[in-house]
Amino acid sequence: MNLRQLELFISLAKNPNISQVAKEHYLTQSAVSVALKGLEQDLGVQLFDRLNRRLALNPHGRTFLRQLEPAMHNLGQVLRTFEGDNMTGVLVVGASSTIADYILPQILFEFEDRYPHATVETVFTNPHDIADGLEDGTIDIGLVETEIDNPVLEATRLCQDELFVVSSDEIFAKKGPYDIEELLQKKWILREPGAGSRDTFDAYLGSYMDRMRITLQMHHTVSIKRVLQNSDTISCLSPFAIQRELEYGELFRVHLKNIRLIRHFHAVVHKDKYRSKLLNTFFHGVEAYLGTDRQIFHEE
Question: Which domains occur in the chain, in start order?
Answer without folding.
Answer: 3-81 (1.10.10.10), 89-158+264-290 (3.40.190.10), 162-262 (3.40.190.10)
